[in-house]
Amino acid sequence: MTATSRSRKKKSPVRLRVSRAFAIFLILAGAGLIFWSSFRQGYGWQTPTQTEPQFNQEQTDKEAPKPAKIYIPKLQRTLEVSDGFIKDNRWTISKTGISYLTTSGKLGEQGNVILYGHNTQDVLGGLWKVQAGDIVEVTDSGGNTYKFEVFERKEVKPNAVEILESADDSRLTIYTCSGFLDTARFVVVAKKAS
């Protein structure tokens, strides 16, 4: 046996240990990223910006019916809608349905009705499939159904507050997390269909 072949045999166990250590590191890093993403999602979303959007006091009238269900034909999905709000700079969010930002617009009135939910298969996963021209139906707590036609879809940064601002027309904004580790928001905007 030559000196060269002996030195190769001695290096082989070291390389094997380094390869195994690196593989274990990658597995642990991947598991950590998945855990971190799940942890963030389980405790709600952060406020999109340091300054909250201002809504008209008229839009917070408690007598107006609230969204109760949403039907998204493109996803073949009907979802329950519950009240959502911002508390301690965190979004409250339903685990199984859609949340309605109670300080946003009212159905059938001028303003921006904001609905948001998790990007999971049973909630808003696949929202990206919704296209301009698609219809979304929202039923309020009084049983009235409102149809909205999608006119815009886009991905924005989490701090993009323009999607939350009031509007001069009757519109619906639906959004969910997107991007690597939920670093973006996918938004669908629709106007009340005539």
Automatic annotation (TrEMBL):
Listed Gene3D superfamilies: Sortase
UniProt key word Membrane: yes
Q: Which domain of life is it from?
A: Bacteria
Cited InterPro entries: Sortase (IPR005754), Sortase_dom-sf (IPR023365)
Q: Which UniProt keywords apply?
A: Hydrolase, Membrane, Transmembrane, Transmembrane helix
Does this UniProt record's set of keywords contain Hydrolase? yes
* SUPFAM superfamilies in UniProt: Sortase (SSF63817)
Entry's Gene Ontology molecular function annotations = hydrolase activity
Q: Where are the transmembrane segments?
A: 21-39
Q: What is this protein called?
A: Sortase family protein
List the source organism.
Candidatus Curtissbacteria bacterium GW2011_GWA1_41_11
State the taxonomy lineage: Bacteria, Candidatus Curtissiibacteriota
